[in-house]
Amino acid sequence: MGWGSAGTKIFDPVARALIAADAPDRETVLADVIGALRAEDWDTEWDSLDLFRDDAPTVRAFARHGIAAPG
Predict the structure, then answer these.
(1) How far apart are CA 42 and CA 14, in angstroms?
(2) Does position 3 have pLDDT exceeding 70, yes or no?
(3) Which of 6, 21, 28, 60 is most exposed, with minimal Cβ within 10 Å?
(4) Could you report the per-residue pLDDT of 13-54, keeping only the tens digit for each?
(5) Would you say 29 and 23 are in contact if contact means Cβ atoms under 8 Å apart?
């Protein structure tokens, strides 16, 4: 069984904070966070991707791990 709360408790708040701060390297930071969470069996990454689908750096961070929105 995967780790469903990783998005709501870790990824989503970190992504929101980086977006609010307009962090210049958030794509790399979020890609690192995604990699770490997936290594711990994160299984709701699609929910987080959907939440941030309008933020290009976040979408690219997911794409680095082969996670892309359908369509």
Answers:
(1) 15
(2) no
(3) 21
(4) 999 999 999 999 999 999 999 999 999 989 889 999 999 999
(5) yes
pTM for the model: 0.91
Packed helices 26-39 and 56-63: angle between N→C axes, nearest 10 degrees:
40
Cβ-contact 33, 11 below 8 angstroms:
yes
Q: ∠ CA 28-34-38 to the nearest 5 degrees?
A: 150
Only one residue has tokens 């994160």, namely: 42
**CA–CA gap between residue 55 and residue 15 (Å, rounded):** 10
